[in-house]
């Protein structure tokens, strides 16, 4: 189940938590972010061949490549025992932006996107079946938690892949990380 909550730049929640996908999508659309839920009928074991994952979702890939003009697609999969999980978590967990749209499709698992728009930060917990598109130049970051467990398909306009420009803002330190946010949902 996807979840969204809005925080102020000071780290205080300024909205209730939403779990209705249509309401979340509508609020995100109003700030230029696309969130859709697509079917994920194919299940994969941890460590599945990336080629098999891409082949299973080729229709989705073709649709997005046509729509956005992507030239490169890959799979990113992390699990609790991944040897570089801490290093990768740190790489994505500070505010940055890209010169191109960032599009991700969650084949399995979950991750938390943060969007810093004006004086608010939108936390969006994406889960299996969620497609999210972050417009170019949008300040954002991503947290996978201390024990990541997700598989997602990433779309890029060029073979250069993921190129980020740091904003230099330490706002990510003021907003709950994924583990804290998910824990608050369970209380």
Task: Describe the protein's architecture and organization.
This protein has 187 residues and is of the alpha+beta class. It has one domain: Jelly Rolls (Sandwich). Helices cover 24% and strands 33% of the residues. The protein is built from 5 helices and 10 strands. The strands form 2 sheets. Strands 1, 2, 3, 5, 6, 7, 8 and 9 form an 8-stranded antiparallel beta sheet that branches. Strands 4-10 form a two-stranded antiparallel sheet. The longest helix has 11 residues. The radius of gyration is 16 Å and the shape is globular. It starts with a strand and ends with a helix. The mean pLDDT is 95.
How would the blueprint of this fold be written?
Layout lengths: L2 E6 L12 H10 L3 E4 L12 H7 L1 H11 L3 E7 L6 H8 L3 E2 L4 E16 L2 E8 L2 E5 L4 E5 L6 E7 L8 E2 L11 H8 L2
Antiparallel strand pairs: 1-6, 2-7, 3-9, 4-10, 5-6, 5-7, 5-8, 5-9
Q: Which runs of at least 5 residues are low in confidence (pLDDT < 50)? A: none
Total number of beta strands? 10
CATH architecture: Sandwich
What is the typical, i.e. mean, pLDDT?
95
Q: How is this structure best summarized?
A:
With 187 residues, the chain is an alpha+beta fold. The chain has a single domain (3-185), classed as Jelly Rolls, CATH 2.60.120.10.
